[in-house]
Amino acid sequence: MSDDVSRETQRPDGSLTPPAPLSMPETARGVFTSDRLPLAERYTELLATEGVVRGLIGPREAPRLWDRHILNSAVLADAIPDNATVCDIGTGAGLPGLVLAIARPDLSITLVEPLLRRTTFLSEVVEELGLSQVEVVRGRAEDLHGARTFDIVTSRAVAPLERLLGWSMPLVAPTGALVAMKGQSVTDEIAESQQFLLTWKCGVPEVFEVGTGVVDPPTTVVRVAWADPAQVGWPLAPAARRRTSRRGRRGEK
Ligand SMILES: C[S@@+](CC[C@H](N)C(=O)[O-])C[C@H]1O[C@@H](n2cnc3c(N)ncnc32)[C@H](O)[C@@H]1O
User: Fold this and answer.
1) Residue 13 alpha carbon to ligand 1 centre in Å
2) What is the pTM of this model?
3) What is the pLDDT along the chain (253 residues), one digit of tens a residue?
4) How many whole angstroms from 156 Cα to the centroid of ligand 1?
5) C-alpha distances in angstroms, 217 versus 96, 212, 237?
6) Which of 22, 54, 73, 113 is a Cys-bridge partner for 99, taking CB atoms 3.0 to 4.6 Å apart?
7) Does 205 contact ligand 1 (Cβ within 6 A)?
8) Nearest CA to ligand 1 atom 23
9) Alpha helices of the chain — where are they, by DSSP H?
């Protein structure tokens, strides 16, 4: 599709949502199957309208939603095995988790986000698009430590790698992995995380690109598994719980 959707929508109170100039790139057809493409288009439209009105997406992002956000997230699907359980922490308005759910109906996806405004939007989108394989959890990643594990824990623009490891690895199943979208700083972030990786028995981080020929530049991904699935750093889960409850006692947010 290359039609420009440039329209205002009227809300029940009579106010107008801003126009949504959405031009879907042709490459999207190679990323989403024809039956899922309409879902990707509708989600993009919702981001450009309700997402902007509710302050979930900056107005300047609206015209570049497809390239910078939707396709950039969708290409992460190449790093996720078939039928995996996926937890997307700090998903915000659903990036990359909701896009993955659209691109990959075989995945079971849990979207974790602490802010109510965002989880309300997510739940509405999930219901409208009929994404029955998606669960929306309002909370911090740490709230799930010791309670849930997943094959893959994704994230985008959530925290520097060391902090991300602390939030994500307790959610990673013994044979699973953290799969995080990162920028140019990934090498430095890995260097700064060496002690953590060693202490918690994580494997050597792999850095690779996905989406070559679809997004420019391609998306940089870091993947971290457990060094030995038989010796998962289980102490991490109780330790993380202790940190969380200490923080709770001190009344920190
Ligand atoms: C910069 S936004 C990125 C949102 C989305 N991933 C994206 O790429 O557009 C970071 C998100 O992480 C969430 N967040 C911060 N700390 C978190 C935590 N400990 N657990 C889960 N989410 C967290 C914030 O509420 C926010 O929505």
Assistant:
1) 31
2) 0.87
3) 333 333 455 556 665 555 444 789 999 999 999 999 999 999 999 999 999 999 999 888 888 999 999 999 999 999 999 999 999 999 999 999 999 999 999 999 999 999 999 999 999 999 999 999 999 999 999 999 999 999 999 999 999 999 999 999 999 999 999 999 999 999 999 999 999 999 999 999 999 999 999 999 999 999 999 999 988 865 544 444 445 445 444 544 3
4) 8
5) 17, 7, 36
6) 73
7) no
8) 90
9) 28-31, 37-46, 52-53, 65, 72-74, 97-103, 116-129, 161-168, 186-192, 194-199, 236-249
Q: Give CA angle at 32 (169, 73), nearest 5°.
A: 35
The whole-angstrom separation of Cα 23 and Cα 14 is 26
- Record the tokens describing residue 228, joined without a space: 């030995």
40 C-alpha to ligand 1 centroid (Å): 21
Length of the chain, in residues = 253
3-class SS of residue 93: coil
